[in-house]
Write a structure and sequence with these properties.
The chain is built from 4 helices and 7 strands, in the order βααββββββαα. About 30% of the residues are buried. Helices cover about 25% and strands about 35% of the residues. It has a 7-stranded antiparallel beta sheet.
Amino acid sequence: METSSFTTTIRVNATPEQVFKAVTNVRGWWSEEISGPTAQLNDVFLYHYKEVHICKIQLIEVVPNKRVVWQVLDNYFNFISDQNEWKGTQVIFDMAPAEGGTQLQFTHQGLVPADECYPICHDAWTNYIQNSLYQLITTGKGAPNPREGGFNEALLKKWNLQPA
């Protein structure tokens, strides 16, 4: 059984500073439906996509222009049975100068092929990093999920999450 965590890499004609700024602009590439700050150490934010996915994330490492690490504090998917799959995992963005710009390596440590959500999560992360984040860095405009109307108390209560 393969146990490697999901990873994908992009190389962009941009400085590490530009890549870092884009990575921490989560609303610009992942979703406009983010509640809370997304750029500084210990920031906590909530993400949700319709009634399909909701999660609470904390930034646990921020090294400007080099590395950002998120810890998934809580998570819910409406399409899997084991709601613990993402809980406690880390989402890592490593940036390094490379020929012609910067290389960004994205790793979702703990998201492995044995996970029930892996096929969908693999495709989603691949799209967000290789398309949306890449576009945000290179053109200034990503392709995040659009705003849906915000978080409401019923949604948070349903999944036993606290607002950020």
